[in-house]
User: What shape does this take?
Amino acid sequence: MVVARRYLISGRVQGVGYRFFILEAGAREGLGGFVRNLEDGRVEAQAEGEQTALDRFERALYQGPPGARVEHVGVEDLIPTGHPPTFRINIT
Assistant: This one.
């Protein structure tokens, strides 16, 4: 079953390679979506794909790379588009 979710990650997640870590996790799981820094210091990610792949991706969000300190991951279910693009980093 294809599912989609939006994540808001807070803690020490900017300037430590967190987006690149998540980019690799999303690509490894074959997910579509994006990750980006927010102006308030959080990181936002959206991902779409098979439920089991999204569950593994979500575990990676809590871990992060060395140097990151994830304090909170907010999760919001989205309506899947059915046609996710590749996983990418959005520069805003």
